[in-house]
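Hi R.,

Here are the chain sequences for the assembly we discussed:
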Amino acid sequence: MIMAGTDVRQERLDQGIKVRTSGIYAISGGKEIGYLILPRLVLIVGLLLLPLVITNPYWQRVISIVGIYALLALSFDFLTHFVGLVSLGGAFFVGVGGYIAALLNTKLGLPPLFSIPLATIGGGLFCTLAIMPCLPLRGVYFSIVTLMYPLLAMRVIEALNIFGGTDGILGVSSFPNRWVEQYSLILVVLVAMFGLRRLVNTDLGLVFRAVKDNDQAVKASGINITLYKTLAVFISSALACLGGAYLVHIYMWAGISTLALDFSIIPIAATVIGGGGTLVGPVLGSLILVPVSELLRAFGTLRIVFYALILMAFIVFRSEGIMVYAQRKYHQFEKWVKV
Amino acid sequence: MNPETALLEVREVNKAFGGIQALFGVSFKLNRGEILGIIGPNGSGKTTLINCITGFVRTDSGKVFFKGREITNRAPHKIADLGVTRTFQIMRPYYSLPAYKNLIVPLFSPRARRLGGWRGGGKLGDRDTVGIDILEEIGFERDSQVPYKLASTLPTGYLKRLELARCLALRPELILCDEVFSGLSMSEIASMLPLIERLQMEGITLILIEHRLKELFRVANRVMVLNFGQKLIEGSPDEVMADKKVKEAYLGSEDLSDYV
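And here is the predicted structure of the full complex:
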């Protein structure tokens, strides 16, 4: 862009090329180390400060909900953009994790310290077994079938009147105090996010991404793709079950509304807004969408209308997502120089 | 292994897609170290034959043996695990990964981890290095940017080589190449031919499906002609070129020597 009448031109330093080719230059100086660490630090410190900065009890609860949606969105982003399985059954994972945690807590008297990890692993295994018959399906067929899972589970609980039926399971114990609740959740989100980012760049992660790019070629390379899809579904569903288990302990109640479609759809919206395939984007997306959804309560029944408008605006004007845009811009330094 | 057992034997394979008979009782044998060319007009069943051998398509009847073991209708990854690898006519790279990372996937497979991948290199170095070694071997300039570029940015010539590299990473015994020369310039083909010959010298058996007859006849030991899913003739390149049936079926009534 050249401005008329002035002798300046825009100079762009594509530092990103250095970053993408190798991380080795980072040890070449403080400036470079800072360049790499700064954005990570902002996110980590920002998240850790949230419970300290926000004092209003209502908004403190919102922090926990943001954390739960961040886990769900991470689970969706990983399975969609790194394995190629678009699951619309996120609510099923949440429900399974939630019910297992609630049952362990109320029937066996296990505190959240044990019920949450057990619900994560056990729920992940249960969901993986349930999804396994659908793994040969691809594309939109897989999506549609997984969409049916939470609906089916809801009707089964209702019809058979198991797990408290429509009343749900009451009397689930909560966390000792809000600090434990919020900080453990924030730490879990950070570990999940950075852990997944590592995973997708290991050799195992490359196989996942190859399955997404071209599953036929992976088969031709002597790799059993069903095995790797199963493993990926376990990772993804365990993360969502973890979110479900937290949800149940925060609300002190597990019911069929943990299988509601919100838990399938809102994480997808958060991923779209934050930028799919970045794994940081979904967390940012949840950080934006959940509070916005709370703020819109002021509009009463028109809330969903405004919510939909915001989503549409994002998809039209920033369809790549905030994080993809931010990463691109961060790696380009632009400045005006006199010619 | 019994020396008289063929490396690959295909016996009376039939395959129909709906009402169209794609393969009609095709049989052939392939000995270790041979290069077999398969030619035929479009739609004659060449690719279907490869798909049937490698398990990507289920055969209706007939049997496929590899080293005397039946592999008919086994899962593709199990057949690849035995060392029967294939390239795809429409290239199937992992577009979102750099070229050398494309080879991490086959190098991560059970077969490559067992045998160490191409020339056993995987047992010595890390997979990234072995991947770049294979790419260099197959014509990617090691010191250039090419091996590190995203597969989606590579031109056709390199993608065709990448298909072959993916097979090599598995330390294959048999490679089935589905039109590796198509879409390449004359100079690119000229550099591929010595590669094919080198692979043969290293003891790899190859099946080449081709439309470029001149290049194929130069490297192939035997040529099989398919027409409407049936085997028309099998023999040395010279025999096939001289055959009247081939001229009529494959090229109409014109003289084949005009093409070669």
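The first strand of chain A starts at residue 8 and ends at 14. Chain A touches chain B at residues 21, 203-204, 206-207, 209-210, 212-214, 216-225 (CB under 8 Å).

Let me know if anything looks off.

Best,
T.
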